User: Fold these one by one.
Assistant:
Number 1:
Amino acid sequence: ILVALLIFSNFVVNAVEAQLLPSEGQQVGVFLGFEFFFNLCFSAELSANFYAHFFRPFWRSTWNVFDVFIVLISWLSMFGGNIPGISVLRLFRAFRVFRLFKRVESLRIIFEGVLASMKGVGNAFVILGILMGTWSCIGVEFFADAQPELFGNLLKSMFTMWQALTGDSDYSGMARELMYTDGLYVAAPFFVLYGFIAGIVMINVVIAILLDAYLRKTAEAQAEQRSRRRAPIRERLWLLAKVLCEGKAAVAAQVHAAHVLQASFKRFLERRRRLADKPHRSAMRALAAVLSASVLELFSEQALAQLSARERLGVLAALWSSRISRDRLKGGHFVHCTEQDT
């Protein structure tokens, strides 16, 4: 939470700086002080993260690589004034707010859902591009003479179709002018079909792909939360102090030994439960054998023949649950159930 507040505060300071546009004097010093403070805080947080996930786990995370890149760019933008292209690097400081996606889980789920849907969305946009190209060629064929600034060539027509797709304000005026001023009534089915296929169907397909990816990421995040319960803050602080005092390797060995001991204790409890349940299982099998024998004696062939098919299947299911009665049922044909019912 503290790191997220720092990132958001840095974003607010950058926004104020962009609004005031200080060029000299005391204001520049104030914003440089803020920049130095935030860089120190982010560097300390990155160092702690690197120490906690040393070495491969740290670099396996794409978010950590992004954090390293942004922090290095921030320091270079402060002290690398003579480096060529440093003004371009300063633009990357605005991307520090994207680190909130890592810290705030709801934002991270949305961001990862969008990234996961890029393949499907890309395929949908390929189809959309093919539709735009097809309608652009038709527009050049029909409307190039009447509206050369809109349909004079393929690129102009593609841009016009993009405006129509986004619902630009010129969209309705464009169609009406072609119909009522130039007398080209073919513009009506042209724009109606394009608006339905591209503006309604394909855009909703893109939204459906994004929603599906978001729901899958949300379900995965909820399953991960259920499987991984975080320890209370007091225990985490105690573990951090223990790591700082004894070293990460020693604490990791202790944690591994504790996990092994816990697994052994669970296996011991499972064996005890099975041994305790063994007499009960034997007694239940004996009781089932007695009951099945009694049922077989009570229900003669004539009595079973008078039962309905559903009732006979119920008796068969009750008898089949016991191994002894099941063996007896395999050798007899007294249930009078058809092969389909069985």
Number 2:
Amino acid sequence: MTTVAKNPPPGTPLTPNFTFRDYSIFFLAGAICATATHGAATPIDVVKTRVQIDPALAKHSLLQGGRKIVAAEGPRGLLAGFGPTAVGYFIQGGGKFAGYEYWKKKFVDLSGSQEKAVQYRLPIYLGAAAVGEFFADILLTPLEATRIRLVSDRTYATGLVTGFARLAREGGIRDMYAGFLPILCKQIPYALGQFTVHEYCNEIAYRNMSEETKRNLSHLQRSGISLGSGVVAGVAAAVLSQPADTLLSQINKGHGPEGSMAHRLVTLAKQAGFRGLFSGLGPRIYMTAFLVSGQFAIYGQVKHALHAPPGIEIFKE
């Protein structure tokens, strides 16, 4: 990891300068890790989404719901929405990871000193995750709306291109971004849990090692620490984002009253109740633990393979 300079000369940034090539690698690594994990999790996500929005499956477990979908639609039913998932998360993953690296560096430099950066590392993590995710979600939202329509209605379109074209033609920008607010409500808490908890788990792991042990860690060992931290971060991300994930599925299905998005979200939340908002949380915890841990593992491997600089470390000693 790249550490923050303790006593830099006046006018010198606290952190090393990342080049355009560096950020390109961050984007590519984030795109690959997000696409690989979300693509692999498509069958789980299909069942989770159907459990959330289909009354006939609402009381079924992940396994039971999957069996019913396969019985009714065949194995291909579990791959509904794969195209939008792969493309959407390629763009979103790249933007999120590269954005986090960029804004984390900016906020560390703005802190003015290593001591301040360490003292305010929590707001730095939260701010970098939130801003990076916000811009990534602008790109993700139309593709996520397409995915949910393909999953919830098997007759909606034959795939990504036809589904996206139908959504744009029939609903325009309004329907394409109808889910933007709930996506933000889902993805920003998800990113906060993902990055912040991962950073703190890494900090705890490294703080309990001697300097000699840390210096002698192999790349594989560091990857193992990142993977383990990712599992914990995935659980946190699932819990924080579950209510908005449920509401997002309802909005994109067309449920809820007319009116502003905020009014629709509040009404749907009241109708669902606490239990309904957390429907499907169990399967989603397993899914996000896999997603987040896998993403950090793949992200680190791709960066290492392409000789990208390490991320910035502001751990408390």
Number 3:
Amino acid sequence: MEKYSRWRDAGTGIQPFLPPVPPRTESSLLSTLSDAVHYIVGPIQGLIKLTLVLLLSLLYFLVNKVIGIIMVGPLARIWSRLWSTIFLRLILMASGFFFIKTEAISLRRGSSRRSNNNVGGQQTTSKASSSSVQSGDIIVTNWTSYIDVIYLAYAYDPVFTQVYPQGKVRRIGFWKALRSCTKIPPPPLEEQEQEEQEGLYTLRELQQQAKENGWGPIVVFPEGTTSNGRALLKFAPVFNCYQPSERNGRFHVLAFRYEYRNLPPTYTVGNQFWHFCKLCTQFYNTLSVKRLANDDVPCNPAMTSSQEAADLASLAGKNATDDLVGGQLTVCLGNMSRLRKTNLSMMDKRDFLEYYHLRDKKSARKQEQQTIRNKKKK
């Protein structure tokens, strides 16, 4: 759309904020019949799926949050981890994500670490196992949908964070992380009240607290907001408290990718509940999760080659002079996911959403005025 052309990245030509257009498919009798069945059966199965999701969500809240109050110490973490794994996987299945493909990827030439094993409806690899992720570890991933949040909560039961433009983070809960997809990204710190700046951490500070208190791993969406999955947004400088020479960062790099024929599961703008309702009307949805091998991840103990780290730092330094580790992680995530890097940031998404909502209000006002005129004519 031309009216949103100002948010098209100049270097790649990609518009990362508008919902993606489904891929074109050749028309055939089979596809026509499939579409007809979808239009008839879709709303019925969508209602059934939505009812199941609501029931499972209620049970999850009662078991995990209400009954879980009596759990203390390490038992609280075990209790939350157990029921998150069960209920959130069921919620994903009820939403149409019956099979989730996971694979470990190595960026080294001639090295492939993929698996075709399938356990419990999810393809797994030994390298992609969540058992290697410990409290205080940092999970770095792209952000394309609220489904990403549900998967991460199911797989790791982590601490979610809200990223601020200056690189600070705030600890948030699972439900707020789900709703963050619909929110306008936070403004710069200098535009906020003093009270709103309380509870902010550097990533290293939050990592230390999570490790000491056994909160679980920390999920960081360094883009700070959702994109439509066609490219990576510019990372906020959340990793500027780390140095490329460190080996105790404990980072884990993940990439989410959705395949779709009609409605994309990616979510950037619009009514979140209505988007989820339409998602439930599809017969199935496809999600694949890639995880970078630990010995390819910057600042990890498994990366033993100082030359590799130096080469990666110099490559990242072309785009990130004050946050080398963030630049390294951008390169790793881009190469693993095969997503191109844009020069658009969370602040550009903020401007985009403000413009989008303003147009919506003007359109609603015009429609209301037109309705009033039609009534007067009658």
